Amino acid sequence: MTEKNRLGGLQLKKIKLIFDIDLRLVYAKNCSLIGNIVFNTILELWLLEKYNSATVLSNAVTLSGITAIVCSFIGGYLADNKYSIRIMILLNLISGIICATPLFFGYSLPVIYLMVLLLNFSSNLSSPIYKKIIAFVYKGKQLPLYNEIMVISSQILSITVAPISTFFFSLKIIDILPAISINMLSFFVTAFLIKSLNVQHLESQKRSVGFIKVFKKIILNNEFGNNAKRIFLSNFWLNIFFTGYNIILIYVCTMLLNSKTLYSIVLFCESLGGIIGGFSYILWKFDKKILVERILLVIGSIVLYFSVVLQFNNGIPVSSLILAIAMTRYAVSSQSILQLDVEKENIGKVFSLLYIFSNIAIPIGSVFFGKFLDTNISIAVLLFTLGVCATNIVWRVYKNE
Prior knowledge:
Layout: H1 3-20, H2 24-51, H3 54-66, H4 68-79, H5 84-99, H6 101-105, H7 109-137, H8 142-170, H9 176-195, H10 211-220, H11 226-256, H12 260-279, H13 291-309, H14 315-341, H15 347-373, H16 377-397
Helix pairs in contact: 2-3, 2-8, 2-9, 3-7, 4-7, 4-15, 5-7, 5-9, 7-15, 8-12, 8-14, 11-12, 11-14, 11-15, 11-16, 12-14, 13-14, 13-16
């Protein structure tokens, strides 16, 4: 069989598998994402235009992260509940009602802040529950395929919906009220789609153990296998360094090289890399060793280092593209591995712990790289490169039995 025929056969099998799976959860997630992107994009533009203050905008962004750790913890317990579907429906309905807050109390800054806080509270609560529902709806090869579809669709929406929203805002076609209304509608449609799912067997599941026992199962007792442990540790590690990476990119492009255009190109390359990463599974299959992803991470970080040190502008977008492909595949593969290897009744708490530790890693990375960027940009980029390469140590230390 020729290489062309082999690839054609793989594509046909994947297309057939797509038509065989239930796409209602895909529609629900994308519907919610569209509303979220429109709302966040217009909100940021509206706040800057109305108050002309970066502080006001940063306060709104800060509120988005305040509830993350606490809500992920509570969300883990809600995911343990046998009525997870009903809880998800309720959270979406409540979020839709929260969007109506400014209609009754006006568009003052405290009301907007309160709405953002409550919406993020609901979103962070639902994340672990959503991961658990996925594991019940999709089986076997359907799980990684669902994750692939979601990462491709989310990247496409990110690079289309946000610019379109910005364009309409600039023409005064859409303002904060229509944006809130679109977000409100997306929550109600999402609730309807989730309600239509047929997962009664979810209500007969065994009850999960507590967070401490789940943590011991992953890290100490290795009950979910070495892959789960490696993903947990490497995810925490990578979040530290990729928080630094995001700071490095904007600092290098806008401060060191004084080019906002370059930064725009970099952001486009990151979105393009996300799409390519999703489609790349046609050529490079899902692999529990995450070997392709780790190789690309090493290559991308090395390209970034030499591009910054040599001030080779064209190399920075290339490195961003490679790293985006790698991280997209890494996210899809790691989520799929956990959803396949972890007992279904424990999935909610496992992802909840993953979110908690990821959010702990973000301020560590921000403080760590912030200090180095103020002193020596080359050392900061070198540390990022070494940190990303060191991820492979985790995968070498905890080999499969």
